[in-house]
Each structure stands twice: as structure tokens, then as C-alpha cells.
Amino acid sequence: MAEVHPLDHLQSRTQPDGTWPSNNTTSEPTPHPNTNVEIEPPDGGYGWVCVVCYFLINAHTWGINASYSVFLAYYLKNNTFPKATYLEYAAVGGLSIGVALGLSPIATSVTRVYGIRVTLLTGVFGTTASLIGASFATEIWHLFLTQGVFFGVGMGFLFVGCAGIIPQWFLKRRGVASGIVAGGSGIGGLMYSLAAHEIIERHGVAWAFRVLAGIQLVVNFACAMFMRDRNQQIGTRNLAFHYPLFKRPEFLLYLAWGVFSMLGYVVLLFSLPDYAASIGLTAKEGAVVGALLSLGTGLGRPVVGYFSDTVGHINMTAWMTFLTGVLCLSVWIVAGQYGSLIVFAISVGIVCGTIWTMVAPIGTEVVGLADLPSGLSIMWIVLVLPATFAEPIGLALRDRAEKNIYLPAQIFTGLMYLVATLCLLYLRAWKIRELDILRKRSSRGEAPGLSTMSIDTPRLHRRMFSWQKV
Predict the structure, then answer these.
(1) What HEC string does the chain produce?
(2) Which long-range contacts (C-beta less than 8 Å, at least 24 apart) are formed by 436-444?
(3) CA dist., res. 286 & res. 278, Å (int)
(4) Per-residue pLDDT of the chain (470 residues; tens, 9 = 90+)
(5) Where are the beta strands (DSSP E) in 236-388?
(6) How many angstroms separate the Cα of 267 from the Cα of each of 68, 186, 260, 367?
(7) What is the pTM of this model?
(8) What are the helix (H) ranges across 60-150?
(9) At what angle do helices 407-443 and 354-367 cross, to 10 degrees?
(10) What does the radius of gyration of the chain's CA atoms come to, in whole angstroms?
(11) pLDDT score recorded for residue 315
């Protein structure tokens, strides 16, 4: 068994009480020595089977959830449930994401006690029951319960069960593997957005739900049977919460990046088809726009993952997040025609969902493999509120007095991505400082360790913009 070089990924970050040991022999705060040996991932092998399975699970959970933009446009246009408000319709899609993320402590605990297969099969049952139930909905609360809560439960168990597996199998190819699996949600969103629109037009909403239920049942069940983790080899803790992580400023920056990214991402994902309708496009054209956004994510996430292995996970994520904000504030605001909106949907789709590609690789950089399940569990819990309420916020920001009623929502979305970029720049400065300390200790023949973040404004700002692969 090979030991990972200390400059790659280290597991142990804090003492059992969550504190950092002090050392007065250096001007930099001295990091805690690494007390755990991390087994080097095989960088392939059966890991590629897991990549394919995770890709398909994403396509048949997050992809189906992305197609809610088509259902939302249909509900708003046809007033399917007469007593429902547009904010209630908007809340359904966000609710499913919020429930999925909020269940992460439970799903993590189930994985620890019963193993990954039980977790994944529970998710398959939940998504199937929810879609079948939604096909019989006659009131808005039925939709909340089925397409919102129950689908979120199923998606949460499937998602959380898989989320930490890819970093266990890959090291040098971690970015590209994560990009491939994250691209599954985009490809699934493309397929299901187009398919849902056609089924709704020809056979109605009820049969659209039933067809989706049957397809995802077959695919997700098969994938659940083939997925395999390496928890025993690595010694993964699988704790729902590892509270000492909250004492680390770099982990808080990691969470903040997730919150602001999610606020922008959900508004963008669910608003484009309705925005298309607001500028006079047809429902079919709106569905195509939503599908092309998903196509962009499906094509872009593997590319982002591939290049992140070369230039650094944090570097690549910061650039993509910044570019998304710029596209929203420049291109989306002036995209008043079908052609320009298609260009925007594809281009922003390539970069807007980088959080789903990089959340696990960056989480590994911040907390290490052993604490990654706990770190991700905390991240999912923190993302519940922004995921649930982002789209209602976006719709509430619409100003019908403006020619472009979505202008306030567009500005809001762009600003959220720019703030997320700032969080990543500060996180980048911490990572560069950490690597500098590790090099110094290695050159002196001392035991490797990691640093916590310190407030040193001049050095911090220099590290934010200095070139280094992180």
C-alpha cells in the first residue's frame, strides 16, 4: 500500500477536540501533524464502473429534476391547479432539491450502519413512488408531497450515497472522473426536458410522470446493484456531522461558496423556460432552451473536470464561477431573441454547474478523504435553504413594470456567482499558504501537517492572485 505524498491530499486536519497545536519556532502557525495514513486510490479499475453508474444515476435523478422547468412552464401557462400561486409552483422544484440535501445526515448514517446498497435502493424506491404519485395529483399540495418531498427523499438517498465514492477511486484523474459523473445530470436534463415536453403535449402530464418513473426505476436499480465504495480500505468515518470542521475558516469559505453558487444556479436552471415565454417564445421553444442549458452542462462538466486536473481544482472552479456571473450580467440581460437565448443557454450551461463537478474534489482538498463524507453532509445541509427558496426569490424579483420582467432576477443571479468567486479566491489563498508550509516542513525533514487559516491581509491578497496550481 502506497502512502500519498503530503502535498497531495492529507486526511487528518485537527486534534480530537478540534484544536490546532501551537509551535512558536516559526513565523507561520504550525500545522497539526498527519496522524493517519491515507491509502492511495487506484485511479481506475472498478472505479470506472462506478463512474458509469454514478453518471446514469445523476441523469435519472438530477436530470429528471431539471426537467421540472418544463412542468413549471406548463403549470404557469395552463393554471393546472387553480388555487395555486406562481410562487407555490416555483417552490416545488426547489423543495425537491432542498429535501434531497437536507436528508444527507440520515443518508450518511444509513450508509454507515447498513452500507451503500441499502441507501441507494431506498432512494430508488423513493423516486419511483414519488413520480407515480405525482401522476395522480389533483391539488397543489399533492404536488408538494410527491414531486417535491418524496422525489427529494429518493434523490437525496441516491445522491448522498454516491457523492463521496469517486474521490475514493481516483487521485490524479479525480477531476475528470468527477466531471464525467456530474455531466450525467446535464445529459439527463437534456433528454428528459425534450421527452417530458413531447409526452405532455401528446399524452398529458400524468403519463409523462409514469413514463419517467418506469425508465428511472430500471436504470437506477441496476446502477445501485453495481456501485461499490472503498470505505473499509480508507477508514472513512461516515459521520453525519464532524463539528470541529466548523472551527476552520477555510471550511466556512467552502460552505459560503456553495451557498452563493446554489442561489444563482437554481434561479438560472428553473427560470429559463419561463423567461423564454416572457419574451414571446412558444412553450416548445422554451423547452428547447431548457434542454440546451442541460446539454451545455452535460458537455461542459467533463471538460471542466479534465482541465481542473491540469490547472488545479480551485483555480478552474474560480474561473468558471466568475465566467457564469459575467455571462448572466452581460449576455442573459440582452438575450431577447430565440437565437441569442440559445447561445446563452449553451454557453452558460457549460460553466454554471461547476459546483456539482468540483464540490467533492475541493472538499477533499479542504478536509481530506476521511472527513469528506462529513464535510459533504454538512455542505448539503447548508444548501437546503438556498436550494429551496432560490427560485421563489427569483420569481418574486420579477418586475412586471419593466420591459424585461426578469431583469432584477438576472442581476441577482449574476451577483451571486460573483460573490461565490470571491469566496473561492480566499479559499485559494489558504490552500497556497498550506502548500507553502508543507514544502518548508518537508525541506527541513519534519513531519507533514496542515495549516488553518490566519488573518494576514497583505500576504492573503498576494496569494489570492499569485499563480499556483491549487
Answers:
(1) CCECCCCCCCCCCCCCCCCCCCCCCCCCCCCEECCCCCECCCCCCCHHHHHHHHHHHHHCCHHHHHCHHHHHHHHHHHCCCCCCCHHHHHHHHHHHHHHHHHCHHHHHHHHHHHCHHHHHHHHHHHHHHHHHHHCCCCCHHHHHHHHHHHHHHHHHHHHHHHHCHHHHHCCCCHHHHHHHHHHHHHHHHHHHHHHHHHHHHHHCHHHHHHHHHHHHHHHHHHHHHHCCCCHHHHCCCCCCCCHHHHHCHHHHHHHHHHHHHHHHHHHHHHHHHHHHHHCCCCHHHHHHHHHHHHHHHHHHHHHHHHHHHHHCHHHHHHHHHHHHHHHHHHHHHHCCCHHHHHHHHHHHHHHHCHHHHHHHHHHHHHHCCCCHHHHHHHHHHHCHHHHHHHHHHHHHCCCCCCCCCCHHHHHHHHHHHHHHHHHHHHHHHHHHHHHHHHHHHHHCCCCCEECCCCCCHHHHHHHHHCCCCC
(2) 436/28, 437/28, 437/30, 437/31, 438/6, 438/7, 438/31, 439/7, 440/26, 440/28, 441/31, 442/6, 442/7
(3) 10
(4) 333 333 443 333 444 344 333 333 333 333 333 334 456 777 778 889 999 999 999 999 988 988 887 888 788 778 778 888 877 887 887 788 889 888 888 888 888 888 889 999 999 999 999 999 999 988 888 989 998 899 999 999 998 888 878 888 888 888 888 889 988 888 888 888 888 888 988 888 889 999 999 999 999 999 999 998 887 776 666 566 778 888 899 999 999 999 999 999 989 988 888 899 889 998 788 888 888 888 888 888 888 888 888 899 999 999 999 999 999 999 999 998 999 999 999 999 999 988 888 898 899 889 887 788 788 889 988 998 898 888 888 888 887 777 788 999 999 999 999 999 999 999 998 888 888 777 777 777 665 555 555 545 556 666 766 778 88
(5) none
(6) 13, 16, 11, 29
(7) 0.74
(8) 62-66, 68-78, 86-102, 104-114, 116-134, 140-143
(9) 30
(10) 22
(11) 93
| Helix H or strand E encompassing 235 | none
User: How long a stretch of residues is the chain?
Assistant: 470
> β-strand 449-450 against 32-33: which pairing, if any?
antiparallel
**Residue whose cell numbers read 415565454:** 277
CA 431 to chain centre: 21
